[in-house]
Specification:
The protein is of the alpha/beta class. About 40% of the residues lie in helices and about 15% in strands. A five-stranded parallel beta sheet has the order 2-1-3-4-5, sandwiched between helices. α4 links the parallel β4 and β5. α1 packs across α5.
């Protein structure tokens, strides 16, 4: 079983990365394969709603870094999608990926159906609940299974690494990862 964590932050080593890497450590201890992918250096344009993906299944017509990321998502049994809150919502980096992945999957073989996944969100102060829900909608519409935790998988921090000081947030993300490992092993 393999879990892919995708970091939607434009910062390669920011707080979102800290949270996702914590989750991956827990998953690895539970015996799962893990992989980490950052969108900070990827060019993924917004969806153009051209519907060419309806003609060529499982492929987007735009030529950028999307297809490689989509294929990595297809190979994973579980997905963690992390984002910081930018002006009250998920980053454009992550949303461009999810919009296109949703279109391609829905017009193709829906590679996400019954995979396990969850959002992970970090903010300086506010916007975590809306952003969590915003990303959660992707999991729901794609027919995925979302494990719970002891609270929403959110944490707080501004400067890079500061999120590690949010003990409750770190613990919640670790519990999410443990529940994800348990669920994936039960579904295997």
């Amino acid at each position: 079983m393999k879990v892919l964590a995708i970091c939607g932050s434009p910062r390669p080593d920011g707080n979102t990365s800290v949270l996702l890497r914590e989750a991956l450590q827990v998953l690895a201890r539970e015996g799962l394969q893990t992989a980490y992918l950052s969108l900070h250096d990827k060019q993924i344009a917004p969806c153009q709603a051209c519907l060419k993906c309806a003609k060529e299944k499982n492929r987007c017509a735009q030529e950028d870094d999307f297809q490689g990321v989509y294929e990595a998502m297809a190979q994973a049994d579980g997905l963690l999608l992390g984002t910081p809150v930018y002006f009250g919502s998920a980053t454009p980096n992550l949303m461009a990926l999810l919009d296109r992945a949703g279109y391609v999957a829905r017009h193709g073989d829906n590679i996400f159906q019954r995979k396990v996944g969850s959002p992970v969100v970090v903010a300086r102060r506010a916007g975590v609940n809306f952003t969590y829900a915003q990303v959660l909608f992707f999991f729901m519409i794609m027919g995925m299974v979302v494990p719970g935790s002891t609270y929403w998988p959110i944490a707080y921090g501004l400067k890079p690494g500061e999120v590690a000081n949010d003990a409750e947030g770190m613990k919640t993300v670790a519990q999410l990862a443990a529940n994800m490992a348990w669920l994936l092993q039960k579904l295997a």
